[in-house]
Design goal:
Elements: E1 3-4, E2 22-23, H1 24-34, E3 39-47, E4 51-57, E5 62-67, E6 71-72, H2 81-87, H3 89-93, E7 101-109, E8 124-133, E9 142-144, H4 147-153, E10 160-162, E11 166-173, H5 177-196, H6 199-205, E12 213-218, E13 234-237, H7 260-267, H8 270-281, H9 290-304, H10 306-312, H11 316-337
Parallel strand pairs: 1-5, 2-13, 8-10
Antiparallel strand pairs: 3-11, 3-12, 4-5, 4-7, 5-6, 7-8, 8-9, 12-13
Length: 339
């Protein structure tokens, strides 16, 4: 018998979180702190504009749907993902293995976002980019990213797509400044090209339109002391989707803000605000949910802007009030526009 577990039956700590993916300059900062300069090979996949989703599957056939931050059910959903999982319980239960695992992907398509080409398709789809196995913590988890291997584990389903690799293997040598700068220049051209036309959406659905960016995955054999596999991932978004304003999508060093106001302008971007609205409020700016939105937004900024704060010689205490006010003003304006 297959089941989808209700929220009250599973401790919230049981959620299997997809790693927080940072920008390259944050990764470079980690290496400097650790005093290491690894040479890492990466493969890229398209970053689709939707909402992060996961499906936990247990050996007994139990199936659990989750958003980025919590376990969800058809009664407490995120853009209809849990409802879709519930409708396909038998399909997912038959994937059960001897150990639990989690399928990670982007729930995207019609009605989820409205900013890129993927939102123009005629339905919602689940685009799988990884499977997590062997452990329920960052230090123990193993991630399968190879598209062919993932496809072998997930048989055909009309609403499921396994994201392929884009382009060839990319080598970043963090100990060779000239090589790194040359590779970064190539990556920036690539991201800008993807923003103009998402190649995967164009090839798969025949829709030529705006893309969000790329996610870069280290090859499985790559190891760096003190860092997990998830720590080595990095993302690069086009100008229209940046959560931190930057001259280029990929940089080895952060932008430097001259004071609190400039820092707010740097990090309180339309893309980050929309992302926070989707994650905290299911995309709906209801005033009853403003507290959840502001908490989610502030947490995200504080976590992802450490390098920018250091570069500006500011602390989170210096900017917290101003960041929160800017986010609050945006949310209230969005809420009024719905009346």
């Amino acid at each position: 018998m297959t089941t989808i577990v209700e929220v009250q039956d599973i401790p919230i700590s049981e959620i299997q979180k997809w790693p927080s993916i940072e920008l390259l300059h944050n990764l470079y900062r980690h290496f400097q702190i650790l005093e290491v300069a690894p040479q890492i090979q990466y493969r890229a996949k398209i970053k689709l504009d939707g909402t992060n989703a996961g499906i936990q599957i247990f050996p007994n056939g139990t199936v659990i749907a989750q958003s980025r931050t919590t376990i969800i059910t058809p009664q407490n959903d995120n853009c209809g993902f849990a409802k879709w999982v519930h409708q396909n319980l038998d399909f997912f239960a038959q994937l059960a293995d001897t150990k639990p695992f989690t399928i990670f992907g982007e729930w995207c398509g019609k009605g989820i976002q409205a900013r890129t080409a993927i939102s123009e398709i005629d339905r919602k789809i689940f685009t799988v980019f990884a499977i997590q196995t062997q452990g329920r913590s960052d230090s123990e988890a193993r991630f399968e990213i190879d598209p062919e291997t993932i496809s072998d584990r997930i048989p055909g389903h009309p609403d499921i797509y396994v994201l392929p690799f884009q382009g060839a293997v990319i080598t970043l040598d963090f100990g060779d400044k000239e090589q790194l700068e040359g590779a970064i220049a190539d990556l920036n051209q690539w991201v800008e090209s993807v923003e103009q036309v998402d190649p995967w959406v164009n090839e798969t659905f025949g829709i030529a339109g705006l893309g969000e960016g790329l996610v870069f995955y280290p090859l499985a054999e790559t190891q760096v002391k003190s860092l997990t596999y998830g720590d080595l991932l990095f993302k690069a978004k086009g100008e229209k989707h940046q959560t931190v304003k930057a001259k280029k999508p990929v940089q080895a060093t952060p932008e430097i803000a001259a004071g609190v106001d400039e820092f707010v302008s740097l990090v309180v971007t339309p893309s980050r605000l929309e992302q926070g609205l989707t994650e905290a409020c299911n995309g709906q700016a209801m005033m009853s949910q403003i507290g959840a939105f502001l908490q989610c937004f502030a947490t995200d900024v504080q976590k992802e802007s450490v390098a920018e704060l250091e570069a500006a010689q500011l602390t989170w205490k210096d900017v917290n009030k101003a960041v929160t006010k800017a986010a609050k003003d945006w949310y209230q304006a969005r809420s009024k526009s719905l009346v």
